[in-house]
Amino acid sequence: MNPRYSLIVPAYNEERLLGRLLASVAIARQNYARPDAIEVIVADNGSTDRTAQIASAHGCRVVPVAKRVIGAVRNGGARAARGEILAFIDADSQVHPATFTEIERTLATGRFIGGATGVTMDRWSLGIGATYGLLMAVVLLAGLDTGVVFCRREDFETIGGYDEDRLIAEDVKFLYALRQLGKRRGQRFARTTRAKAVTSTRKFDEFGDWHYFPLGLKGLWAMLRHREAQFADHYWYKPSR
Fold first, then answer.
1. Which has the closest alpha carbon to 161: 181, 135, 140?
2. Whole-model pTM?
């Protein structure tokens, strides 16, 4: 039998944090009514460390994806997935123990096109708290969220998955397209905040606890100068990502 859920983890050189994520996924699977109905796919984006070995040791399917664009990595994992419901989580995160139970409860109502669990941080400071508050304001205004993102496979295919040409905000574009599809069907985008994922603060560790505030201006300046690729390389792709 095909699984009900496919959890897709894009990964590049994630040997330090991947095991932590997969341990949290194992707990969430055991808390779901049918643990064997969940497959975990690690979409390995050409890692040169032990990422693939760690994934295999945790019983994951490892799917190689060559193109170094995060949207392509997510799509590569989705193409190999066998589940009715696709879910996506970053390799440096941890999932809530009730993740799959909450997703099941949400989709069973028929009122939602898909959704996201939301996130909390794995450490806090004044700068991180201020950044979180700012981003939560954006989340509430936009009606979207992050964390474990989920939708039905057919809906993922209807909107064409993630944009493989975008280096920045491909996740926002995907969520917006999913929400628009839901509107046409009379469905909403769900925020299942009772099962928030824990996201890594490694970007804050690397760039500073207040770095998000000037980051937006830098990103806008890069777009105006048509240098989005350089900006994305510096922040997302070059530093051990």
1. 181
2. 0.92
Residue carrying the six token digits 């981003």: 135
In 3D space, the residue among 169, 126, 166 whose CA is nearest the CA of residue 144 turns out to be 169
Q: Rounded CA gap, 74 and 92, in Å?
A: 15
* Tokens 């799509």 sit on residue: 75
Please spell the DSSP secondary structure of the chain, one letter per residue. ---SEEEEEEESS-TTTHHHHHHHHHHHHHHSS-GGGEEEEEEE-S-SSSHHHHHHHTTPEEEE--S--HHHHHHHHHHH---SEEEE--TT-B--TTHHHHHHHHHHTS-EEEEE--EEESS--HHHHHHHHHHHHHHHHHT---SSEEEEHHHHHHTTSS-TT-SSSHHHHHHHHHHHHHHHHT-EEEE-GGGPEEEP-HHHHHH-TTTHHHHHHHHHHHHHTT-HHHHHIIIIITTT-
Sorted by where each starts, the structural domains of the chain and their CATH numbers stand as 5-94+101-237 (3.90.550.10)
Q: List own/partner pairs for 61-65 with CB under 8 A and 24 or more apart.
A: 65/10
| pLDDT tens, position by position, 97-111 | 999 999 999 999 999
Per-residue model confidence as pLDDT tens digits over 145-175: 999 999 999 999 999 999 999 887 899 999 9
Distance CA 151, CA 38 (A): 14
d(CA 118, CA 129): 15
